[in-house]
Amino acid sequence: MESRKGQSSTGSGASQNSRGTLKCECGNDSVVRTVKHGPNIGMKFHGCPLWPRTTCQFFRWILPENNQIEELQCTISEKDYVIAKLEVEQRLMAEKIKKLQVKKDSLEEENQEIKIEFRHTRIELMNTSRNEKNFSMALLCSWVFFCIIIMYLK
């Protein structure tokens, strides 16, 4: 069926009998089939009833009426509009995702800087605590030394 897709809609061996049905090249009444795959999906056509077990190449599209064509064109236009709208929304979402990614990266950098600053503050606090202990020990030693001197002078 794929090989027949590009053929003309007027088969050279086609004829029409008195009942209005088409005859294929091999003389049989043609059958109506529907395209199931490809870009013409859903379209109907006349073909040989013996296909694919025959060499008969009869093929003729069944064209819809004008109002059906207009309806289909309108439907296609509506679908195209919906697709275009969704593509715009997709682009906007992609831009929003990029902005959020940049913001996330910035916040992660800021978080790392805060962690580093916290570590430095913690180290300073530990050093201050040591200095306080050392100062307390020095003060205690100086009081003991002062008391010893006062007792010695008396």
UniProtKB/TrEMBL annotation:
Residues 1-21 are annotated as: Disordered. The chain crosses the membrane at residues 135-153. PROSITE patterns: ZF_GRF (PS51999). Keywords: Coiled coil, Membrane, Metal-binding, Transmembrane, Transmembrane helix, Zinc, Zinc-finger. Residues 1-20 have a biased composition (Polar residues). Signal peptide: none annotated. Residues 24-65 form the GRF-type domain. It holds the Pfam family Zn_ribbon_GRF. Residues 83-124 form a coiled coil. This is GRF-type domain-containing protein.
